[in-house]
């Protein structure tokens, strides 16, 4: 049986770290309509933060004019109670997604990043897909069951 979309939202914003809290609150607020547990909302905030941070610090790292760097978020709520969150950037892209997703892998050189972002996204959701092309950008799709009963 097809899992029907019963609600959806889209938002986009400039890739600035001040907008990270906007992003996680917007998605958490959309998710809260099915009355999920506090733990589920906390997981959603965590994974949205990780994906948005990656778009800002990796995807758009080399672009000076941040005003031209946009992050796109799309959420769909399915009849089954599953939330689909798509977080997309049009930044530098990832050459080798499989390697990038390994625990502790980071291209960060100043020791600020732990290389655990994708691992956290994986373990706090019920599914993750990463589509990326060098020079084109990255789309992370996360699935989360909102009602765990
Ligand atoms: N949106 C993105 N655009 C470009 N590269 C990315 C993006 N997201 C992740 N990456 C690459 O994948 C690596 C692993 O990401 P992650 O697991 O979040 O660790 P960290 O951010 O701590 O480096 C990053 O170091 C970066 O090279
Ligand atoms: Mg990261």
Structure description:
- The protein is an alpha+beta fold.
- It has a single domain, classed as Heat Shock Protein 90, CATH 3.30.565.
- It contains 4 helices and 5 strands; from the N terminus they run βααββααββ.
- It has helices at residues 20-31, 38-59, 97-100, 117-123; strands at residues 5-14, 70-78, 82-89, 127-133, 137-145.
- Strand 4 (127-133) and strand 5 form a beta hairpin.
- The mean pLDDT is 96.
Q: What is the CATH C-level name? A: Alpha Beta
- Strand adjacency order, main sheet: 1-2-3-5-4
Q: Quaternary status of these chains? A: single chain
Q: What is the total tally of β strands?
A: 5
Could you state the order of secondary-structure elements as H and E? EHHEEHHEE
The helix count comes to 4
Q: What percent of the residues sit in helical stretches (DSSP H or I)?
A: 25-40%
CATH topology: Heat Shock Protein 90
Strand-residue fraction?
25-35%
N-end to C-end Cα span? 21 Å
Supply the helix-strand structural class: alpha+beta
Based on the coordinates given, report the CATH architecture.
2-Layer Sandwich
Give the cofactors and ligands: adenosine-5'-diphosphate, magnesium ion
Evaluate the radius of gyration: 15 Å
Low-pLDDT sequence parts: none
Mean pLDDT reading: 96
Question: Can you lay out the helices and strands and say which pair or pack?
Answer:
Layout: E1 5-14, H1 20-31, H2 38-59, E2 70-78, E3 82-89, H3 97-100, H4 117-123, E4 127-133, E5 137-145
Antiparallel strand pairs: 1-2, 2-3, 3-5, 4-5
Helix pairs in contact: 1-2, 2-4
The protein binds adenosine-5'-diphosphate and magnesium ion.
Adenosine-5'-diphosphate binds at residues 50, 54-55, 58-59, 89, 91-92, 94, 100, 105-108, 113-118, 138.
């Amino acid at each position: 049986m097809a899992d029907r979309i019963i609600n959806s939202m889209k938002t986009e914003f400039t890739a600035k770290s001040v907008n990270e809290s906007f992003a996680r609150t917007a998605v958490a607020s959309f998710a809260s309509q099915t009355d999920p547990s506090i733990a589920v909302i906390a997981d959603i905030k965590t994974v949205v933060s990780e994906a948005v941070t990656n778009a800002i610090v990796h995807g758009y790292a080399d672009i000076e004019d941040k005003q031209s760097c946009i992050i796109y978020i799309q959420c769909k709520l399915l009849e089954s109670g599953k939330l689909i969150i798509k977080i997309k950037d049009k930044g530098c892209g990832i050459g080798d997604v499989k390697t990038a997703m390994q625990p502790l892998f980071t291209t960060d050189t100043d020791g600020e990043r732990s290389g655990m972002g994708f691992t956290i996204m994986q373990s706090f959701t019920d599914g993750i897909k990463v589509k990326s092309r060098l020079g084109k950008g990255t789309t992370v799709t996360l699935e989360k069951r909102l009602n765990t009963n």
